[in-house]
Amino acid sequence: xxxxxxxxxxxxxxxxxxxxxxxxxxxxxxxxxxxxxxxxxxxxxxxxxxxxxxxxxxxxxxxxxxxxxxxxxxxxxxxxxxxxxxxxxxxxxxxxxxxxxxxxxxxxxxxxxxxxxxxxxxxxxxxxxxxxxxxxxxxxxxxxxxxxxxxxxxxxxxxxxxxxxxxxxxxxxxxxxxxxxxxxxxxxxxxxxxxxxxxxxxx
Length: 203
Known about the structure:
This protein has about 200 residues and is mainly beta. The chain has helices at about 10, 60-65, 170-175; strands at about 1-5, 25-30, 35-50, 55-60, 95-105, 110, 125-130, 135-140, 145, 160-165.
């Protein structure tokens, strides 16, 4: 789909990928008819700029996404699960900090308080605004959060919830979340090839 780059939909991508899934329905109508017919429906999956005046949006139908291969479970040291999902079982309501925004500068957000949370507690977590805006937290230093992309929908004085992050290691799962029994990695994978003696880490 090609449209002017200053249209509302392309503008949603300039500060980073929009939150959630963007669904799109294209209707067709003949001159003189009152009824519209659905020509295409699906979700947006790509965005590029075409010169200085146009933007190109790429989409896929629901049937196309179903045909895509699913994720495979790898034999790896780090956990394969997503923090807080039904396989991980960490209750995120017990690992959050409610605060308010005091400053927004691009992809850096200051909050009023992080309570007793240590630096780095929110690394890899996310911040959620009152209106549902979400951004991943790349780094937390005190009350300063460095986000994965600039935000347009967070403002000073807005209530936000900051959720803890996980680096997917066994130590973090055990010590930070008390979730050792649900850890999804294999931390005791041998690092030396038992047949040749070569280090597997260098392969």
